[in-house]
Design goal:
With 137 residues, the protein is α+β, with helices and mostly antiparallel strands. Helix content is 15%, strand content 40%. It folds into two domains: 1-36; 38-123, Immunoglobulin-like (Sandwich), CATH 2.60.40. The strands form two sheets. It has a four-stranded antiparallel β-sheet with strand order 1-2-7-6, with no helix packed on it. A three-stranded antiparallel β-sheet has the order 3-4-5, with no helix packed on it.
């Protein structure tokens, strides 16, 4: 098996982008809303000092219609968008969940919605290490 090689983050990210594009095309073919409602920029998780920072592109939402919850190592982001059209009212619901790489202080979460981006700051627990790379300057 000399051709066998271990995939790194780059290969897995490329595969995810390819799958996202295929699911979006499938949704479009059937007249459904896009499978990636939180925007093309997607999602990022970074470490900033003793905090994890989760950013999700979510253009066109009202901050009052966004909910964020943290339980254990799971972050859930839910939103509801209501659009008024000539034919009436159309509502869409979105939900995104991700698992964090380390234990966090779930009761000290702060979330801000600004310029179409949801930013969630979650303090890490001091005793737990985190396997995230530091953001580039």
């Amino acid at each position: 098996m000399p051709d066998l090689r271990i995939w790194g983050e780059t290969q897995i990210s490329k595969m995810k982008r390819d799958m996202d594009r295929r699911f979006e095309a499938l949704c479009t073919d059937f007249g459904l809303p896009p499978a990636r409602p939180f925007g093309e920029a997607g999602l990022s998780v970074e470490q900033d000092g003793d905090e994890l920072v989760v950013r999700v592109a979510a253009p066109g939402l009202d901050p009052q219609d966004i909910g964020v919850s943290v339980a254990g190592r799971r972050v859930a982001i839910a939103a509801r968008r209501v659009m008024r059209t000539g034919a009436g009212v159309r509502a869409e619901s979105f939900r995104k969940e991700l698992y964090l790489p380390c234990a966090v202080a779930a009761r000290e979460v702060a979330a801000i919605y600004s310029d179409g981006v949801i930013e969630i700051r979650i303090p890490r627990r001091a005793a737990d290490g985190c396997a995230l790379p530091r953001p580039r300057p």
